[in-house]
Amino acid sequence: MPTAPTARQVADAIACYTPDIADALTACRRKLCARVPRGYELVYDNYNALAIGYAWANKASASLVSIAAYPRWVTLFFLYGKGLPDPDGLLEGEGVRVRSIRLTSPDDLDRPPVQQLLTLALAAHEADFAAAPPLTTVVKAVAATRRDRRPR
Q1: For the CA atoms of the chain, what is the radius of gyration?
Q2: Is the pLDDT score of 77 beyond 80?
Q3: Cβ neighbour number for residue 102 with a 10 Å cutoff
Q4: How would DSSP label each residue in 5-22?
Q5: In terms of domain of life, where is this protein from (predicted)?
Q6: CB atoms < 10 A from the CB of 108, how many?
C-alpha cells in the first residue's frame, strides 16, 4: 500500500490526464494490484507517459508487466513478451524483448487471453513474488519536463 505522500504523488500524476484516461488507468491499476498482491509497484512519471511496473524486487529489471498512460490510451506492456505464446495474436511490437497490448477498456484485462498472457508472464518469478512484501508503491522517477498529458 502506498504511503500518504507517495499516494498523493501518484494521484497528482494521474490527475494530469483527461477523466477518461485517468479513470481507465486507475481501473487498470486496481486490477493489476489485485493480480499482483506482493512485490513492488514501480511508478515512473516519464517524459512521454506515466508508467507503472509490477516487480518482484524494488528495481526496474525485476518488472515483468507494466501499464502506461498516454494522452489517448492506456497500454499493457509485457517486458519479456517476445517469448510469450500468443495464439490470439494480441501482442504488438517488433522489439528485441517487449510486447504490448493497447487496451480499449480496463475490462480487456479480464479477457481470458489477456489473463493467460499475464499468468505466463508472471509465472517465471512466482516464488520471488511470494517471498516479496505486500505490494509496495515506489515512485522511482519524475521527469523534470513532460509532454502534455491531454490530447491537443
Answers
A1: 15
A2: yes
A3: 13
A4: HHHHHHHHHHTTS-HHHH
A5: Bacteria
A6: 18
| Residue (of 70, 83, 62, 82) closest to 125 by Cα position | 62
pTM, entire model? 0.94
Distances (CA, A) of 111 to 35, 87, 104, 105, 131: 14, 14, 12, 11, 28
CA distance 136 to 91: 28
Q: Which three cell numbers stand for residue 36?
A: 499482483
Q: Write out pLDDT tens, residues 31-44.
A: 999 999 999 999 99
Residue 99 has φ and ψ, to the nearest 5°, of -130, 160
| Number of neighbouring beta carbons within 10 Å of residue 65 | 22
